[in-house]
Amino acid sequence: MVGAQWGDEGKGKVVDYLASSFDYTARYAGGHNAGHTVIFDNHRFVLQLIPSGILRPDKKAVIGCGTVVDPIALVAELENLKKSGIDVRGRLFLSNRAHVIFPYHREMDKAAEAARGAAKIGTTSRGIGPAYEDKMARRGIRVCDLLDPDRFRERLERVVAEKNVISSAAYGHPLETSGLLEQYLEIGAHIRGLVADTSVLLYDALERGESVLFEGAQGTMLDIDHGTYPYVTSSNATSGGAAPGLGVAPTRLIGVAGVTKAYTTRVGSGPFPTEMPDLDAHEVRTRGNEFGAVTGRPRRCGWLDLVVLRYAKMLNGIDSLVVTKLDVFDEQGEIKVCSGYRYKGQPIVEMPPDVETLAQIEPEYRTLRGWRKPTPGIREVKDLPAAARDYLSFVSDELEVEIGMISTGPERDATIVPQGTMLATWL
Ligand code: GDP
Ligand code: IMO
Ligand code: MG
Fold this sequence. Notes:
Low-confidence stretches: none
Structural class: alpha/beta
Mean pLDDT: 96
Radius of gyration: 22 Å
Bound molecules: guanosine-5'-diphosphate, 6-O-phosphoryl inosine monophosphate, magnesium ion
Number of strands: 20
Number of helices: 14
Largest sheet: 5 strands, mixed
Distance between the termini: 13 Å
Strand order of the largest sheet: 1-11-15-19-20
């Protein structure tokens, strides 16, 4: 299950719905930059690193080696779940190979953003990028290191010495690292019970015939390789990331669901071809409550972009499309959908690799009728207003993909699952 846009498509809600049909839910990328909202029984949960499937009491959840883990944030998230009566004992597993986020990663994230000035990415300031940088530079510290005090001490000293040289040269001061060793050893002991070789765990589960739902974080257009680079996150958010990010063979993946809103949002900077003018954006933001689940930042709002979705279908191999937030258009008179791009007056079909070109794209719009009727509470496609059905059919026809699920509200039961789809066979 992947985000087909720039994140915040409603993955948390969708995973929560689907998770009841799977034995495991597993996160393969990103960290606590994600915010996946799940609402049921008047409870609102925002899951950041822990897979949303954990909210189903009899299900297991895995945080894979492709994620970056801030143990302090993880413990805080565990505490929050505990307060809400969610017991994770024996059913949450953290990869021993996942890389650890340290406070110096957060410092570096903020310093790098400040240094970029007006060209800042608008990161979540969680230290995600710098932690992945260290992983790729082969100086990262992993969860397994945290559990071995001698090895951890030795590694941390070496890494801090190296980073202090860089930090002093780049920012004029060394890193703030006092008390770090003791704090992290203590927190390592605290999370020890969760740590496992999660590739083996999932391999054994799959061999037993159990099922795994891979929970994507972020979205296709934030993917480090395929997104609007450099205005992206630092991991592979696309479906291919699931294999290395969990140590599960790619041949095990049997299907991909892509999640899109009925419109588009983006948080942070970077080009956004279908961004709405302020007034329209304000209306959609208010109706869709488009404020960051983690940072509270107002999300930029725009019309649905079929060029983005076609690209997402190709990259992820989307078999089934989930459309969320249809209800946000319930009062809309006319709905625009971008069906193509023009660049310097000429149509272009491929997603430009550079943000400079993307920033100059002129979207071509089709205008569809709104339905001006409430959709929450509707349980079957046939009961949706005709114009809402037309909207969904238009998207499905243009993308040549089925619509496997429709969401008409944030709650668990505001969901329509049409029969006879590929998605229905996975449940
Ligand atoms: P994620 O990061 O993809 O999990 O999405 P977020 O949780 O960050 O943002 C999606 C927001 O939309 C959350 O506030 C959800 O509660 C809400 N949401 C999800 N599906 C629907 C829907 O169908 N209708 C409405 N109105 N809200 C929805
Ligand atoms: P979920 O899983 C929306 C964006 C940030 C920023 C860029 C880089 O909830 O959909 P980072 O902190 O990752 O280095 O920031 O990526 N971003 C997200 N936007 N939803 C997310 O996650 C995001 N995770 C990162 O806003 O533009
Ligand atoms: Mg989110």
